[in-house]
Design goal:
mainly alpha; 5-stranded parallel beta sheet; two-stranded antiparallel ribbon; 69% helix; 5% strand
Length: 951
């Protein structure tokens, strides 16, 4: 214990010494900080002196600037004097020139009159007498003019004298003023310079004195501070040495303490471990005793339970009595005679012999059984071996069977080349395979009404597209829609622009929400012919390997057939679209050339004389012709990178290139919505109602002149615009939804704006791609591009930014690859206003409010119309019932009703609910109705003929 107390005291002393050292170190640090602060103050004073010197230099510069200003004022005065002199000289020159002109005029007058008189005398001798009086009058007038001229000369002379006097006076006045100004300026300069020099000298002397005094004081302070710092540094060095010694001694003491503490800890640990071992042994003994006690207690409790109410003394007494009795009985047993035992022994001996015999018999039987078991094992081994051989043979048999099946299939595949060829209809069936099948054994629903508002239809597409999570501006949507409408002139709508802006999604969603059949055809880089896109005839399999596009084209030109025998989902009464995705991965002319030429031939052709695509079905079999109907629209997307091919002028001429703009704001898509149910199919009749085949534009000459001017400028670089370009532009403008939706008489200004916007779209879509490749320097720039740009600027066509961009990014060649004009906020806002105005006008046309008939009259008219429809149906029912009730033969003009009265009523109810006309049902509508009513579809033709006959 004494050693521990000594160690604790030593530790306390060491801690006190450490604290004292810490306080000393803190004091030294404070002194060091004070010295640092004083040094910082000295630096600030030195910086202040530097700033004072800079201020003096600035004041000197200000004085220099004032001197320069005085000189500039003097120069201005000199310039004004020169200007006045120049004006006076100009006036003098003007007066002299006027005087010369008057003299020349007087000479001309003097010399001209005799010549005129001679001419008149020579030419008109007869009229001399009549003209004498006129000549005298003219002579008098000339005399008057001469007098006036003389007066003017006198006035001019007087004016010249006045001018000379004024000039002399101005010169004298100006010289006097100038001398006075020079004297004043000289005096002012001298005074200001003297004042400034005195002030500067005084300030310099004062500043120098202050600086010298402060510098001396700072030097003294610095010397004192340096001495103090040296002393403090010496003290610090001594104290550091002492601290190092103290720290060394402290470390030594700490090490000694640690050693002693560790030794004592080891000793105490050993003692404690011995005590712990003893205690553990004692604990084990105690546990054993406890267990023994528990066992004895349990034994006692068990005995107590067995004995019940008897006490232990009674139990011991009974046990001793019984042991004595047992001993007695044993003694009696040993002393008893052994007859019984002998008999028992004999009997047991017999049993043993019998058992031995039985054992021998069993051993013999066991040996025979063992021999039999060995034979069974041999048989099992042989059986397993046979099973394995059977399995291997079965595997070989299966393999040979598979080879045989493969050979049979190969034989079937090769046999058609040598056997009889399949029929033409069977091969056509592969071409006409449905791409868009029936849904639940029913065709896709068609829109019931043939008259659909075009703008409302487009607005609904844009709304549904936005709900899905994508946004397309109305201008791009309308441009794409108009490009499809003008397919008669430009059959291919090409979507180009930045990747990821929705070029492929626009046709897909336009078709989905607009009720148009859609097929996406990904173009492959290895397409080198039309067969790559449509398919080819496989001469080995003797069938046509049709691609989905060919199936889609075949389905789009076939009618809808709903009867059970000839079910086919034809689409010739609806609109369909084919999208050639990434169309410029391969050369378009290689795989689409036949389509381009055939679509060109389609323009102006009647429905019965449409061009067709020939599909080869094999040798000695007539090809299958697929007509290119107007219900199939073609669109394509393209990108510009190292993996794509550029479009040729042939494709550009026959297409409408719509450029997507660079997005200025990136749209979020926080949720990936599921595409909703597609819209009802748009009938071809509705689509045709939207297309205008005649140009009713009044002011086409203005736009035509712009195109002709561009064509003239292109002639300088060997390029040109064809007739097709202007025709496409004109009919694009005619068919644009805004132009169609606005009334030119009611809204003339808005109608003109819509035309301008449509024309601007066509400049980008049809004209600018034709400028590709023109050099942006030299002759091509000055004679073509600059003039076209000036024309666009003059006509206020908002394409200058994109035009400059095309000149800049093409590496020396013009390359149109942007659509920044579509990002103009003001134009887009105005476009939205025009769309809203057109929507209002179209809604008024669809639901006119300015008619003379009131709402009640309209309602009664509708009621009377429905009543008349019902009356017509009832009359047809009665007529049909009379026909069925009468037993007379049907005349040649009439025909028996093919349906029962109940079926006919159901048919009429179906027609009425679907707002159809019984007399104008087509055969496909009759077939659809009969299928819906679960009637016999085979009667379609009979019902159709009957309805036509009844009128």
């Amino acid at each position: 214990m004494s050693k521990n107390t000594e160690n604790t005291l030593d530790l306390k002393q060491i801690n006190k010494q450490q604290q004292q050292l810490k306080t000393q170190m803190e004091q030294l640090n404070k002194q060091q900080l004070k010295q640092d602060d004083e040094a910082f103050e000295l630096k600030q004073k030195a910086e202040q002196l530097v700033r004072d010197q800079k201020e003096l230099e600035q004041s000197k510069q200000l004085l220099k600037k004032e001197k320069q200003w005085m000189q500039e004022q003097q120069e201005k005065l000199d310039k004004d004097y020169l200007v006045i002199q120049n004006r006076q000289n100009k006036k003098e020159e003007q007066l002299i020139s006027q005087q010369k002109k008057l003299e020349v005029r007087a000479l001309e007058i003097e010399n001209g009159l005799p010549e005129l008189a001679k001419q008149h005398v020579a030419e008109q001798v007869v009229l001399i007498e009549k003209r004498k009086e006129a000549l005298k009058a003219e002579h008098n007038q000339l005399l008057v003019q001469q007098e006036a001229f003389a007066n003017k000369q006198n006035d001019l002379a007087a004016w010249e004298e006045q001018l000379t006097q004024l000039k002399q006076q101005a010169d004298s006045d100006f010289a006097a003023q100038r001398s006075e100004l020079n004297q004043e300026l000289a005096t002012l300069r001298a005074e200001q310079l003297a004042r400034l020099n005195l002030k500067m000298d005084q300030e310099e002397q004062q500043a120098r004195k202050k600086i010298e005094q402060s510098l001396l004081q700072q030097k003294v302070d610095l010397a004192q501070n340096q001495d103090e710092l040296k002393q403090a540094q010496g003290k610090l060095a001594a104290e550091k040495l002492e601290l190092q010694k103290v720290e060394a001694s402290l470390k030594q003491q700490q090490n000694d303490l640690e050693r002693t503490v560790s030794q004592r800890m080891v000793e105490e640990r050993n003692l404690l471990e011995g005590k712990i071992d003893n205690l553990e042994k004692q604990n084990e003994l105690l546990l054993a005793q406890v267990k023994q006690a528990d066992f004895s207690v349990k034994l006692y409790e068990s005995l107590q339970r067995e004995l019940g109410e008897q006490s232990p003394e009674e139990v011991i007494r009974l046990l001793t009595a019984r042991t004595e009795e047992i001993n007695r009985l044993q003694e009696e047993l040993f002393s008893r005679p052994s007859e019984e035992i002998q008999s028992y022994y004999d009997e047991a001996k017999k049993q043993v012999e019998e058992l031995k015999l039985r054992n021998e018999q069993l051993n013999n039987k066991l040996a025979t059984l063992q021999d039999e078991a060995d034979g069974v094992d041999q048989i099992e081994y042989e059986l397993n071996r046979e099973k394995r051989s059977h399995e291997s043979l079965q595997i070989r048999y299966d393999a040979i069977g598979a080879d045989n099946n493969q050979l049979r299939e190969e034989l079937k595949r090769l046999n058609p080349a040598y056997e009889e060829q399949q029929t033409r209809d069977q091969r056509i069936a592969g071409v006409k395979r449905e791409v868009i099948p029936f849904v639940n054994h029913k065709p896709l629903l068609r829109k019931q009404s043939d008259v659909i508002n075009e703008l409302s239809w487009l607005q609904q597409i844009q709304k549904d597209t936005a709900n899905y999570g994508l946004y397309f501006s109305e201008r791009i949507l309308f441009a794409f829609h108009t490009a499809l409408k003008t397919a008669e002139w430009s059959p291919l709508a090409v979507l180009a622009g930045v990747s990821g802006t929705g070029k492929s999604q626009l046709p897909k969603l336009y078709s989905h929400f607009g009720g148009i059949n859609f097929l996406n055809v990904p173009v492959q880089p290895n397409w080198d012919s039309q067969e790559s896109m449509l398919g080819y005839f496989n001469s080995i399999d003797n069938c046509f390997e049709a691609q989905p596009m060919l199936n889609f084209l075949a389905q789009s030109c076939e009618p809808l057939v709903c009867n059970d025998d000839e079910r086919y989902h034809g689409l010739n009464d609806t609109v369909s679209m084919v999208l050639l995705d990434e169309m410029n991965l391969a050369h378009v002319e290689l795989y689409f050339a036949d389509f381009l030429s055939k679509l060109e031939d389609r323009r102006g052709s009647s429905k019965n004389k449409l061009p067709s695509i020939s599909i080869k079905l094999g040798a000695n079999i007539a090809p299958y012709e697929i007509p290119l109907g107007r219900n199939v629209l073609f669109a394509g997307t393209m990108n510009q990178d190292e993996t794509t091919k550029s479009l040729s002028d042939k494709v550009i001429d026959r297409g409408t290139s719509i450029f997507f703009p660079r997005p200025t704001k990136l749209h979020e898509r926080k949720k990936l919505n599921v595409l909703s149910k597609p819209a009802e199919l748009l009938k071809m009749k509705s689509w045709s109602n939207w297309i205008k085949l005649e140009s009713n534009l009044a002011n086409t000459s203005y736009y035509k002149q712009i195109i002709e001017a561009i064509n003239n400028h292109l002639g300088f670089v060997g390029k040109a615009l064809g007739h097709r370009v202007w025709q496409s532009i004109e009919y694009y403008m005619v068919n644009h939804p805004l132009v169609c939706g606005l009334d030119s008489e009611q809204y003339p200004d808005e109608y003109k704006e819509a035309l301008d916007l449509a024309f601007e779209d066509q400049i980008v879509q049809k004209v600018m791609p034709k400028l590709r490749g023109i050099e942006t320097r030299g002759y091509g720039k000055t004679e073509c591009l600059d003039k076209i740009r000036a024309l666009l600027d003059e006509k206020k066509i908002n394409l200058l930014t994109d035009f400059d961009h095309a000149c800049r990014v093409g590496h020396g060649q013009f390359m149109w690859a942007s659509a920044e004009y579509l990002n103009d906020e003001n134009t887009n806002k105005r476009y939205q206003e025009l769309v809203e105005l057109a929507m209002k006008q179209s809604s008024k046309i669809d639901n006119p409010e300015n008619k003379t008939v009131s709402d009640n009259d309209t309602q009664t008219a509708n009621q009377s119309k429905s009543f008349s429809v019902k009356n017509t149906l009832n009359s047809m029912f009665n007529h049909a019932m009379k026909k069925t009730e009468s037993t007379d033969d049907v005349s040649d003009d009439n025909q028996a009703m093919p349906l029962t009265v109940k079926e006919f009523k159901c048919l009429s109810q179906y027609v009425y609910e679907n707002k159809l006309e019984m007399n104008n049902l087509s055969i496909s509508e009759v077939r659809t109705a009969l299928e819906y009513l679960k009637c016999d579809v085979k009667k379609t033709k009979q019902v159709f003929d009957y309805l036509k006959l009844q009128g």
